Amino acid sequence: MRILHTEASCGWGGQEIRILEEARGLIERGHSVSVACPAQARLYTEAPRFGVPAVALPIDRKNWNAFRALRRHLRDGAFDVVNSHSSTDSWLAALACATLSEPPALVRTRHVSVPVRPNALNRWLYGRAACHIVTTGQSLRQQLIDGLQLAPQRVTSVPTGIDTQRFIAAERDAALQALGLDSRCKYIGIVATLRSWKGHLFLLDAFAQLAVPELRLLIVGDGPMRGPIEAKIAELQLGSRVILAGQQTEPERWMQAIDIFCLPSYANEGVPQAIVQAMLCAKAIVATPVGAILEAVSHEESALIVPPQDAAALATAIRRLLDDPALAGRLGVSARRRASADFSLDVMLNAMEELFRRHSDESRRSLSAN
Question: Distance between CA atoms of 50 and 152, rounded to whole angstroms?
Fold first, then answer.
């Protein structure tokens, strides 16, 4: 198949990484897959590292030039499927496909749990313009079905898959040594884009409540909240105990080094990639019941779940895991078993490949009939 992913966002996070991992995986299966995004997008500069062809199109705004550029690319590319990912490129792709005599099948992937307004335009986009909707969690799927009154068979949940050979339960001390970290310390870690809703500030408040001299906090990632996070660290006088590691190309090393993984998100989540990565590394996890997180982990079975925006509860859960290594170990083993079975890269690729093929075939039959 010839598959095109479109992405209007210029940011960098789990959504963009999923696009490139999925594209790379389907390229390895013999398909022709490329990405269209703005020239200034991080996705455009990162695509070569994943071995994914990328074309620069001005699709970060809803305007005539963007519509014309994407329509021309779809017309000339003879694509079987176009998979849109953000609001702006989804609208542009929908309008472009609606004006082509032989359009590709349009699949819309929705990555976040922000509600979609149930107006006529959105009902057209999700209910008619796109031949299928993909969400990254079952709760997001149900939200769209209920909110936009969509037929259930039009919406499929396909959580992001993670490479089970890359994220493994490795020796912690070896990982610490490779990163130059002190093996005498214990490490709480968060691996996430520095965005407000990821809950970094609440994690810092919780960490400040833990009077454990050898305890350190690793914050891996970069993003718009870096300034406020640095200010919070200074305010709480935690500079000597918090490590801001920045963006890392090998997050698995950092996952393997930490003792407890925390993701205190309070909005906008599907099934976060970082949660699954931590699960595959057999880490004890503290998280919140936001978005589709509970579709990956269960309280007391594979994680400890705390209310969002509650630093005291977060600190209590972390302290419990520090005080009970047996519990931490049991949760980690259970988490890895679950992630390996349900959230592998192959599971995601199998689902997306089958979905793309089915709608590509249906689109061809429809065009032939007309």
Answer: 34
Give residue-wise pLDDT tens across range 246-268. Answer: 999 899 999 999 999 999 999 98
- Structure confidence at residue 369 as a pLDDT band (50, 70, 90): low
Q: Which of 181, 173, 184 is nearest to 212 (CA)?
A: 184
DSSP conformation letters of 181-245: --TTSEEEEEES---GGG-HHHHHHHHHT---TTEEEEEE--STTHHHHHHHHHHTT-TTTEEEE
Mean pLDDT of the 136-165 span: 95
Q: Residue 237 corresponds to which amino acid?
A: Q
Tally Cβ neighbours within 10 Å of residue 190: 26
pLDDT of residue 211: 86
pLDDT in tens, 127-145: 999 999 999 999 999 999 9
The C-alpha angle with vertex 268 and arms to 304 and 247, in degrees rounded to 5, equals 80
- Residue 319, pLDDT above cutoff 70: yes
How many CA within 13 A on the CB side of residue 270? Answer: 25
> How do 155-157 and 242-246 pair as beta strands?
unpaired
The tokens for 325 are 């290594």
CA 83 – CA 289 distance, rounded (Å): 29
Q: Which of 38, 107, 102 is nearest to 66 (CA)?
A: 38
Count Cα neighbours of 334 within 13 Å in the Cβ-side half-sphere: 17
Nearest to 251 by CA among 20, 9, 14, 35: 14
Residue pair 130/107 in contact (Cβ under 8 Å)? The answer is yes
